[in-house]
Amino acid sequence: MTTEAVAKKPNIIRRLYAWTVSWADHPAGTWALFFIAFIESSFFPIPPDILLLALCFGAREKWLKYALVCTAGSVLGGIAGWGIGYGLRDTVAIPILNLFDASGHTQEKIQGWYDAYGFWGILIAAITPIPYKVFTIFSGMANYSLPLLIGASVIGRGFRFFLVAGLIRIFGNRVRPFIERHLELCFIAGTLLLIGGIVVLKFLR
Question: What is the chain's pLDDT, residue by residue, as a tens digit (205 residues)?
Fold first, then answer.
């Protein structure tokens, strides 16, 4: 199934997907990827993987570029998240953290995660669907080492985004028809992963 065929279906998810893929050869598509990766690491709830996938489908030969842009945006966004936690604790940082746990115990949970796993805990969060912004913001609040946060971001986010883009480069021609045929189910699966990451956050010790 081609992108054009997807676009003809009267479905907002499919039309949004086709529109996103169409930006693969447009400079603004790369900037949009950078921007979303940046804000996702500091406050935005939607992960950049969705746009990364779509752009790689649109131009698989650019997978390295897209993975690098996504990683750079995410790492810089993580630094911004650290700055929010460090300088805007009460006005911005705590309200954002409380969005992920209405009980208000997010700080204690993340502190327990830091105490138990330290650098490796941040690295795990950088790779998995656990909301990374929670860790970048809390790192600033706790005055956690910024260089260590940057290191974890480079390794973890780089691994995640280069893996996603690399898989599309290798298997894109085979998985794209399946994804486009079952686009709604893939969207639901991605949403469940995001929700699952938030649920895991609630059960951190």
Answer: 455 544 454 577 777 777 777 777 777 889 989 998 998 888 877 788 888 988 888 888 999 999 999 999 999 999 999 999 999 988 888 888 888 765 666 677 777 778 777 788 888 888 887 788 888 998 999 899 999 999 999 999 999 999 999 999 988 778 777 777 777 777 777 666 666 666 666 665 5
Q: What is the pTM of this model?
A: 0.80
CB 139 within 8 A of CB 149: yes
What is the number of structural domains in the chain?
1
Residue span of the structural domain in which 147 resides: 3-202
Of 141, 165, 163, the closest CA to residue 87 belongs to 141
Measured in residues, the chain has a length of: 205
Q: What is the dihedral of CA 186, 162, 120, 150, to 10 degrees?
A: -120
Closest Cα partner for 179 from 10, 102, 171? 171
Question: Residue 2 to residues 25, 109, 118: CA-CA distances in angstroms?
Answer: 17, 46, 46
CA dihedral (120, 123, 127, 132) in degrees, to 10, reads 120
Residue with tokens 């746009």: 51
d(CA 66, CA 136): 23
